[in-house]
Amino acid sequence: MNGRGRALLRLFAVQGVWNYERMLGVGLGYAAEPLLEDLKIADPVRHSEAVVRSAEFFNCNPNLAGLALGATVRAEYDAEPGTQVVRLRSALCSPLGALGDQLFWAGLLPGLVGATLAALVLGAAGRAIVAFLVAYNLVRVWTAVWALRTGLASGMAVGRAIGASWIPKAVPLVGNAAGLLVGFALPLVATWYLRPFGLLSGFSVGLVVAAGVAAGRLFGARMTGSRFALAAVLVTLLFRLVTR
Amino acid sequence: MTDPFVLAALLAWGTLVGLDLVSVAQSMIARPVVAGAVAGMLLGDPAAGFRVGVLLELFALDVLPIGAARYPDYGPATVAAAAVAAGSPWELSLGLAGTVGLLVSVVGGWSLQQLRRRNAEAVQRHTAALAAGESAAIRRLQYGGIARDTLRSALLTAVGLLAAWAAARVLVLDRRTAIALTLVLVGAGLAAALGGALRGAGRSRRRRWLAAGLVLGFALAVLR
């Protein structure tokens, strides 16, 4: 396998040593290693400096890390000044984080999960889960290949390449689709669970849903879904203990 | 669940899904709906795996795994929850299974924080080698981080399975309490997913798409 293929594989473990010190930095350095090998022969001093830079602090969405990896490696081969490479790396953190998080964590993933839940409760069962895994991984592997290729081709001009790419256009589309699919799945999942319990259970579960959403709005990020659920379980157990 | 082969398979599966969450692959086998389905199959009760997986997936939809944010680890937790639910009518076991799953997921979130701290300490120990541009140091750190996460995931799954075994043995709930717990957790799960979707939509056009989806879903649910 050539350096590019090995770097691509290593990108799938880019968060292998995620930490508060350098975040994705060391993982990106690990992925950069095969791409920098040719530099070792051509310019050993530059190679050593490039390895140091490759493992410094970096953070972004892991699915778009290939853009930063490719661009910084290309900049090293183009003999750009080291300070410029560091600045490029820092400048890419926020946009690649924001775009990747919106595209994958807030868009593609909840959208596909919504579709999977709907298909599963409508009777697709295991096929829905296989389809989810295949669809998600096709998109993310294709994105990783595209990202590394685009980064390597663009170097210092990677910002322009990202701006002109499909990503900024896809973010709102995928986000809207995710809203639709999650919304579509929730009533189907609710009836899947509540059908055996009758109409009255629907009313009481509706109250819990209203209380949960209201608690989330009232207390913000402190009241996560799991915290509310555990509090509700505790209240239910105490109530049952008292009224038994 | 006392079959040693099933236990070993559950432990291996929980370790894999724990690793998949952050460190290696992120292929989404760590999603509760996937982790639960496979755990259910390993336990010989795929339906229980689906029920538990979908329930915990509702909670996972509330989570955005962004940067340094602290979030629960639902993968190994779902494996433990499936172990509680398997072999019993889901209407009676889902509440207890979901509660065990949520508690294990919180412990999982805490264990991720500890892992990140240990990784940072390892990076600090290798500062000189990193500053000297030693590729071997980068590789050592990377493999060390993955090994630590493997250990974390295996331990979390083991703790989860132990909690599942204890819950099934010790907590014998009467029928009404068991059903009440199931309904409360289904409601809380729906609230978490809806709350997450509303937060994700903000005031953008996405909120209209969410509303349209809810209307369509309701219509289909009524018609079925």
Which structural traits does this protein have?
heterodimer; A: 244 residues; mainly alpha; B: mainly alpha; 9 helices
Describe this structure as you would to a colleague.
The complex is a heterodimer of chains A (244) and B (224). Chain A is mainly alpha-helical and 244 residues long. Chain A is 79% helix and 0% strand. Chain A has 11 helices and no strands. Chain A has helices at residues 3-11, 25-32, 37-42, 44-54, 65-77, 82-124, 126-154, 158-163, 167-194, 199-219, 225-243. In chain A, helix 10 crosses helix 11. Chain A is elongated. Chain B has 224 residues and is mainly α. In chain B, helix 1 runs antiparallel to helix 2 (32-42), helix 5 (90-125) runs antiparallel to helix 7 (135-170) and helix 5 crosses helix 8. Chain B has helices spanning 4-21, 32-42, 46-60, 74-85, 90-125, 127-131, 135-170, 175-201, 206-223. Helix content of chain B is 79%, strand content 0%. Chain B has 9 helices and no strands.
Q: Summed up, what is this model?
A:
Chain A is an all-alpha fold and 244 residues long.
User: What characterizes the major β-sheet of chain A?
Assistant: none
Task: Detail the poorly predicted runs of chain B.
Answer: none
Please indicate the percent range of residues of chain A in DSSP E strands (runs of 2 or more): under 5%
Give the strand tally of chain B.
0
Question: Which value, in Å, is the CA radius of gyration of chain B?
Answer: 20 Å
Helix content of chain B: over 70%
Oligomer designation: heterodimer
| Spatial shape of chain B | globular
Shape of chain A: elongated
User: Please, what is the average pLDDT of chain A?
Assistant: 95
Indicate the mean pLDDT of chain B: 95
Number of helical segments of chain A? 11
Low-confidence stretches of chain A: none
